From TrEMBL:
Keywords, sorted A to Z: Repeat, Transit peptide
Xref: SUPFAM superfamilies: HCP-like (SSF81901), TPR-like (SSF48452)
Gene3D superfamilies in the record: Tetratricopeptide repeat domain (1.25.40.10)
Protein name, per record: PROP1-like PPR domain-containing protein
Ranges in a coiled coil: none
């Protein structure tokens, strides 16, 4: 025999042979024999035995042997690690896979154990199965660094887990990376992406992905079709959803309960409840076993149809599967509430409590609503207490809704009940409300949330509820935010409830120190209720005490003071703001300038405007419009034109109002050419002139005696659908009268009457004055008679003009007749009384002349001795 010296290679071959033959015991004996023979096992030998254990699922022995090899400082090869990892993963021992992976990382550098593609694939899979997304992504990062491209399945599981964790951007990144490697996604991957897009409501991307799937010939299964149907329904493409559903039926893919429910839900979204019932009926006819899922959809459908009997039948069927979930309970309970079945609703609540159904927030809200409507406040208190004791944490929004219901219920009870039962009702409600309020106040930002509710109720006009909550907060020692108090005060002012506003203001000042916002609100309320004097004094008191002066309040107060002609008070406020360095905004400056304009202090208006510019406050279109009026009234049309040009240079959108203002001043100044040019430019820029603009332009032509141009504007106005009003006709009549087109002026008056507009005295006066100016007294008298025939009284200016004509032309009887018919309707006038005296005296009617003279003295009028009858008949 030859001399044989044992070697590790021979034993390794023997170990592999035993392993392939599933002779684990012989493999173990061979390994021990190797050790007894003094042969030191190397990494390959150890790895071979580890693979034997892994192949046969002997994980306990495998891990013990692995621990022994580590103690001997032997690092198995990567292939052995891969066997071990794969075996552990097949038996769902993902924790041990992760544990083994960490060992590999520890010995990677020292022992040159480098993971390969298979290693990364297995380890990522186990991290995903364990729900450890960040760790899985870290392994993916290492795989990328090794320049290894993951398989589709690896990408797919990472996409699925990222989607479940709500990592939308990461999902998209993984998908795009996969596509960049030229990997065609599986239908499972596409389903994960579609589900994510559906959840995030990114429907355009979902539809784009579906189109891409069709181009890549990805097999579309029922799950994907179901998601697609759901998406079509959500974006209102009901026909596409129906078509897709029919395609599934035709392809024989329809078998999943969720697909039927998805299509039924689409019909419900479109309010086609009968079709929804047909789809669910089709499911039953095909022997698809219903579950709570489909019964829930059926219940929602009957609830939407307001079919109580059918909904109750479905609910009973649901109960056979155990306790229905809170969503189904809430659906049925809300149906009872909607249809006013409060007795059934109350009984249902008692049944839920008996069966110990745990309420969630939504169901709790519905239960509270029923309890409040049914007067079951005690039950509501118990339910809230049980929820708190049961550790159910309510969101702030839920507590706010409950508080709002309690407040509404309390105010309605207080309005409906007699005085003997009001106290008890108020006490019960207050205790329940206080408990909930305290819970809300214990949450971060709870006080601010409660004040938000007060502001909301106040703005909605529910001032009784807002006041009640305001009082509850105060009683709990919590100072309501100034914004809550001020909003309620402002609302009282809006509703003309000054007494309530004053009560709240006094109450707030008694409980806590009042600050600027509450003062400002009270000033606003006083203004809205017409107490301008009190508003002014309160504002000045607030300023003296050093409180901040709100620019909005300043604008409101100044506007009201201006309307009531209290210009000195406006100047006091204005100087106080300037000296107190109050930061005024554009609106405040505009209000100050407009007040000075109304008071006739045009120089002050200009000074305020200059101050506005120097302080850097931006000018608005309203600023320029007011300044155009300031300069226009001051006769500085060139300055007004500069304001108009400056507004354009700032890029402000010039509107019809500012054009009309310029047209008006150009017209009054007789500068009809500039007015006409501006009117044409306005039309060129696409600004259709309105009625006021056209009236201003007609007046401009009237001043220039250009009646033809005025008539053209009038006709254009009608052709564009503008209905002329009284002011339009007045301008047109003026243009005809100024141009001595008397017949056209009379026709314009007839047009007014035909279109149902009753002329006033000024409409006739222009024509009368024109006739008198031409010494056509009979024509003027005729027009005057027409005016009186249709019931239009002669005004003072017209009467003066006619009296002067009668007096100067010696038409005594007609003058006396006019005086006697108008003296009772017109206020005493020096000229008319003096003219009447001279006419009476000239006709020899001394007693009547004496009466007129006495009337002149009685009314304190001036007697004009220089008047002379027939002055224009005397030869010059």
């Amino acid at each position: 025999q030859l001399c044989y010296e044992p070697s590790v290679v021979a034993y390794t071959i023997l170990l592999r042979a035993y392993g392939n033959a599933s002779k684990i015991e012989l493999a173990e004996e061979a390994f021990l024999e190797m050790l007894e023979a003094g042969v030191e096992p190397d990494a390959v030998a150890c790895g071979t035995l580890l693979c034997v254990y892994a192949r046969r699922g002997r994980h306990g022995d495998m891990m013990l042997f692995y621990a022994a090899t580590r103690r001997r400082g032997v690092a198995p090869p990567v292939s052995a690690f891969n066997f071990m990892l794969s075996s552990l993963q097949k038996h769902r021992l993902h924790g041990k896979v992760i544990h083994l992976w960490k060992h590999m990382m520890e010995m990677e550098e020292a022992n040159n154990v480098v993971p390969n593609h298979f290693t990364y694939t297995v380890v990522i899979g186990s991290f995903v199965k364990a729900g450890l997304l960040e760790e899985a992504m870290d392994v993916l990062g290492k795989m990328r660094a090794s320049r290894l491209v993951p398989e589709e399945a690896t990408y797919s599981c990472l996409i699925s887990l990222s989607s479940r964790h709500g990592r939308g951007e990461q999902v998209v990144m993984l998908y795009e990376e996969m596509r960049a490697h030229g990997i065609v996604p599986s239908n499972y991957t596409c389903a994960s992406l579609l589900a994510l897009y559906d959840k995030s409501e990114d429907y355009s991307k979902a539809l784009s992905l579906f189109s891409e799937m069709e181009r890549s010939r990805v097999v579309i299964d029922e799950v994907i079709y179901g998601i697609l149907i759901r998406i079509y329904g959500k974006i209102g493409l009901y026909d596409d959803a129906q078509r897709t559903f029919e395609e599934i039926v035709s392809a024989g893919l329809l078998s999943d309960e969720q697909t039927y429910v998805a299509m039924a839900q689409v019909h419900m979204n479109a309010r086609n409840y009968d079709k929804a019932l047909q789809v669910l009926g089709l499911m039953r006819s095909r022997n698809v076993k219903p579950s709570k899922f489909s019964y829930g959809a059926l219940l929602r459908c009957h609830v939407a149809r307001e079919d109580i009997a059918a909904a109750e039948d479905v609910f009973r069927a649901l109960c056979k599967y155990g306790l229905p979930d809170v969503f189904c309970c809430n659906d049925l309970l809300r149906l009872y509430v909607k249809l006013g079945q409060l007795e059934k609703a109350s009984a249902f609540i008692l049944k839920m409590r008996k069966e110990d159904i745990q309420l969630d927030e939504a169901l709790c809200m519905t239960v509270m609503e029923v309890c409040c409507k049914s007067g079951m406040i005690t039950d509501a208190d118990k339910i809230l207490k049980e929820m708190n004791n049961g550790g159910v944490t309510m969101k702030s929004s839920t507590m706010v809704s409950i508080i709002e219901m309690y407040a509404r219920n309390r105010t309605s009870v207080m309005q409906e009940q007699d005085s003997s039962s009001k106290a008890l009702a108020c006490q019960t409600d207050s205790s329940a409300l206080n408990a909930t309020l305290k819970s809300l106040l214990d949450t971060p930002g709870g006080s601010s949330i409660a004040c938000q509710l007060i502001r909301k109720l106040a703005r909605e006009g529910r001032t009784c509820e807002a006041k009640f909550l305001h009082e509850q907060l105060t009683q709990l020692g919590v100072k309501p935010e100034d914004s809550a108090t001020s909003t309620l005060i402002v609302q009282y002012g809006q509703e003309q409830k000054l007494h309530q506003a004053e009560e709240l203001f006094e109450s707030a000042s008694t409980s806590f120190p009042i600050r600027g916002p509450v003062y400002n609100a009270m000033v606003d309320a006083l203004c809205k209720c017409g107490n301008i004097g009190e508003a002014y004094h309160l504002f000045m008191k607030m300023a003296d005490q050093g409180h901040s002066r709100d620019v909005v309040t300043i604008s409101i107060l100044v506007t009201h003071l201006t309307k009531h002609g209290k210009f000195q008070e406006v100047e006091n406020i204005m100087h106080g703001c300037f000296h107190g360095e109050v930061e005024l905004d554009t609106v405040a400056y505009n209000t100050f300038i407009k007040s000075m304009l109304e008071s006739g202090k045009l120089y002050s208006a200009v000074n305020i405007y200059d101050r506005m510019i120097s302080t850097g406050v931006p000018r608005s279109l309203q600023t320029f419009n007011i300044m155009i009026s300031v300069y226009g009234l001051g006769g500085k049309l060139d300055k007004a034109a500069e304001m108009f040009a400056a507004a354009q240079e700032l890029g402000l959108l010039i509107d019809e109002k500012i054009y009309t203002n310029m047209l008006n001043f150009y017209g009054k100044a007789g500068r009809h050419q500039e007015a006409s040019s501006l009117f044409d430019r306005m039309k060129e820029l696409g600004i259709m002139p309105g009625k006021i603009s056209c009236n201003s332009m007609i007046n401009a032509y009237a001043t220039a005696r250009l009646h033809d141009e005025a008539e053209i504007v009038f006709q254009e106005m009608q052709s564009h659908g503008q209905v002329p009003d009284s002011t339009t006709y007045l301008a047109l009549i003026r243009s005809y009268s100024e141009s001595r087109c008397y017949s056209k002026a009379e026709k314009a008056i007839q047009m007014m009457l035909t279109s149902g507009i009753t002329p006033s005295c000024p409409h006739f006066s222009h024509l009368i004055f024109a006739f008198l100016k031409a010494d056509q007294i009979d024509e003027a008298q005729r027009i005057c008679s027409q005016m009186q025939e249709i019931g239009v009284a002669v005004d003072l200016a017209c009467c003066r003009a006619m009296m002067r004509a009668y007096l100067e032309h010696g038409r005594v009887d007609e003058g006396i007749s006019l005086f006697e018919t108008t003296r009772g309707s017109l206020k005493p006038d020096s000229f008319i009384l003096s003219a009447a005296f001279h006419l009476y005296e000239h006709s020899g009617s001394e007693p009547e002349a004496g009466d007129v003279l006495e009337a002149i003295g009685l009314h304190g009028a001036s007697f004009l001795r220089s008047l002379k009858v027939g002055s224009k008949l005397e030869p010059t």
